[in-house]
Design goal:
The chain has 21 helices and 22 strands. By secondary structure, the chain is of the alpha+beta class. β14 (458-466) and β15 form a beta hairpin. The longest helix is centred in the middle third of the chain and has 51 residues, at 300-350.
Length: 688
């Protein structure tokens, strides 16, 4: 797959493109320097052949004039005292001598900086030797460096005696500079190639590796020698070879200037890796392809991250779909009891028959409890996800806890003809330490599901001791669960059957909450099930025996009666206010109403208030502020007025906030008469 225009390629497409431009620039520098060197070399060879062809002529000419003057190279003729006899125009030009008259002047006077080794050369040639040097470094008087190619040979007069020497010189400083530039360019190119942070390779048109850098060896796991014996196809994953060959063919045919592709390589150890490959073609001066330049970047981590992001996206989308299904189910579950409650209340207003009123009230009461249970489940799952749910640690009667949870479902089980029974291992202590409310919640969820999904047979609850732990098992002979659906059971917002025609209701939160509670209590939960046969849920909790406690003695009957208590009800909602007043009036209590915190303080200051039921959220002044103000006004007076919070907030933080403000208790909405009776009883004990 091509990624030529992908701006998000890992490692940076911009960085890769910059590196490729730098390499092409260095390649261009090297090619230009090489071209200059070749031109100079060709020129030197031409002049050398010209001089060699004319060499014999100098032996024959005693005093060459016209040829020497017009020679295309620097030539000077000296006598035996190294005085000038003739010098070519090129000699004068190369050595800055201008048009001055040289004949008869000493060469050593004109150029006093001539080193001793050159003078020795002159003497040897005056003795008959012919000497030459292809490259010679000469430091001029001004400190500049000059490179010369020279030849010195003697010339003879008509008698055959050596009359002096002829010096041929060629200034090759420019050629040497071009060669130096070429070498430096080559060094820079090799350094960039070898030390690049990405893999690099030169590949022949047939695909064979010509040159590879160290990073490419690291990426592929092969040594340099091993890679140079391979082609790019040898290390390319089989499924990616065809596209690579097609792109290479287009590159050679000049259909594309370069290409970028994400492909897979097979490392020497067999591991599959993803790479981002940028390929361009290097041509010679004539435009013929020399080799391909490939820049290779290992993007395996990026591809793995992409895969994880795709999985996370899919999971998020699935979670969204799951929550949408849950909300649809929850809407149905909430509307069902609300329909019964509202319908029952409407029918109750129109009904005068006592039996019908009893039936309607029973329907409304059961539906309201069902609705409250759904709301509690939502709050529990929210607190669990926010890690705000706390597990209490207190002593409790294990058998009573199990019995109470099972007895809730005795009547529904009897109506279905089910045998619902429970047992606790005698070896388990009566008193254990833990959270009885949360344990009861787990049992209620599991036993309730067992009864709901069992049409005939039995539901058995058993608790046994095993290796110092308590093992709870809930067995049923119900419909069972298919193996491929078991994993969905303990996930929140999911149900095995999400269809509109499902025969069993429920929000799909009970098992998820039970699993979280078991794990928060240090245990584990599991399921064994067979479709059409039944299921057994098992959860294991640590066994923490509680210290023996003395049975508390019942308190003596209060002297003061409830009818003597005066209650101040601070509540802004008229419906709730009227409902609570009716309940309190039925108990014969004297009730005063306040619609906000400020009004509650004013009515409390008039005196005679034994108990304040204080709503937390009220206009002008909330319940917490009003309570703090009352406690400030009371100072150290005894006895204090009892103040109980009246709120729909049930989080532990809300309870702590109420106690910190000076409240004595906490009544949650919807208000249960049992809780209200306990508050009245507490007030009576204080009053007496």
């Amino acid at each position: 797959m091509s990624n030529q225009d992908n701006p998000t390629t890992p490692g940076g497409k911009r960085e890769i493109e910059t590196l490729r431009k730098e390499l092409r620039r260095l390649q261009g520098e090297r090619d230009d320097a090489l071209a200059r060197a070749l031109r100079l070399q060709k020129k030197c060879k031409t002049m050398s052949r010209s001089l060699q062809a004319k060499g014999p002529l100098w032996h024959k000419l005693q005093r060459p004039t016209l040829f020497l003057e017009q020679a295309p190279v620097a030539i000077a003729m000296f006598d035996r005292e190294m005085r000038y006899v003739r010098a070519s125009r090129r000699w004068r030009s190369d050595y800055g001598l201008g048009e001055r008259e040289l004949n008869g002047l000493s060469h050593y006077d004109i150029f006093p900086e001539i080193p001793e080794d050159w003078k020795a050369t002159h003497r040897r040639c005056l003795a008959g030797e012919i000497m030459r040097k292809e490259e010679d470094r000469f430091v001029r008087a001004d400190g500049s460096i000059q490179w010369l190619r020279w030849e010195v040979q003697p010339w003879r007069d008509a008698s055959g005696s050596i009359g002096g020497i002829i010096i041929f010189t060629e200034d090759i400083t420019e050629r040497k500079q071009a060669e130096d530039d070429l070498r430096q360019s080559e060094v820079r190119y090799r350094t960039t190639f070898e030390q690049a942070a990405v893999g690099m390779a030169h590949t022949a048109p047939g695909g064979r590796f010509l040159r590879v850098n160290h990073r490419l060896c690291e990426i592929t796991g092969y040594s340099r020698e091993e890679l140079l014996r391979k082609t790019f196809s040898d290390i390319t994953f089989s499924e990616d070879i065809d596209i690579s060959r097609k792109l290479e063919k287009k590159l050679m045919a000049k259909e594309i200037p370069r290409y970028t592709i994400e492909k897979r390589y097979v490392r020497k150890d067999g591991a599959l890796i993803w790479v981002n490959l940028n390929v361009s073609l290097v041509r010679d001066l004539a435009g013929n392809p020399l080799h391909s330049l490939g820049v290779v970047e290992d993007i395996s981590e990026h591809k793995a991250l992409e895969s994880k992001l795709r999985e996370a996206k899919e999971q998020a989308e699935e979670a969204t779909r799951t929550k949408s299904r849950f909300l649809a189910t929850m809407s149905h579950e909430l509307r069902t009891p609300m329909t019964v409650i509202l319908g029952s209340l409407e029918a109750l207003r129109k009904s005068w028959s006592a039996p019908e009123r009893e039936q309607l009230l029973e329907l409304g009461d059961s539906s309201a409890h069902r609705l409250l249970g759904l709301i509690d489940d939502l709050l529990d799952i929210s607190k669990i996800e926010a890690r705000k749910l706390k597990i209490e640690e207190q002593p409790f009667d294990l058998r009573n806890c199990v019995r109470r949870a099972v007895e809730i479902f005795m009547l529904p089980a009897q109506k279905k003809g089910l045998n619902l029974h429970w047992s606790v291992d005698p070896e388990l202590p009566e008193q254990v330490s833990g959270d009885p409310a949360r344990l009861g919640q787990i049992l209620i969820n599991l036993v309730g599901n067992a009864v709901k999904f069992t049409r005939a047979g039995e539901v058995a609850v058993a608790v046994r001791k095993e290796e110092g732990q308590m093992v709870f098992s809930i067995l049923d002979t119900g419909i069972g669960i298919a193996p491929d659906q078991v994993s969905q059971l303990f996930r929140p917002f999911t149900q095995v059957d999400n269809s509109l025609t499902r025969p069993f209701g429920g929000s799909g939160l009970g098992l998820a909450i039970s699993k979280d509670l078991v794990e928060m209590m240090g245990g584990s939960i599991s399921l064994e099930s067979e479709l059409g046969t039944g299921s057994t849920f098992t959860f294991v909790l640590p066994l923490n025996p509680a210290e023996e406690r003395q049975t508390p003695q019942p308190h003596k009957a209060p002297i003061r009666t409830p009818q003597a208590l005066k209650v101040l009800l601070a509540e802004d909602d008229p419906s709730i206010r009227n409902l609570i007043k009716i309940i309190l009036d039925k108990r014969g209590l004297s009730v005063t109403i306040a619609e906000n915190g400020r009004e509650a303080i004013e009515k409390w200051r008039k005196g005679g208030v034994d108990l304040i039921l204080m709503d937390l959220q009220m206009p002008e002044m909330n319940g917490l502020e009003a309570t703090k103000k009352i406690r400030e006004l009371e100072r150290d007076e005894e006895p204090r007025t009892l103040i109980f919070a009246l709120t729909a907030h049930v989080l532990p933080e809300s309870r702590h906030e109420c106690l910190a403000a000076g409240m004595d208790g906490f009544l949650s909405k919807p208000l249960r008469t049992e809780a209200l009776d306990r508050a009245i009883e507490s007030c009576l004990r204080t009053a007496n």
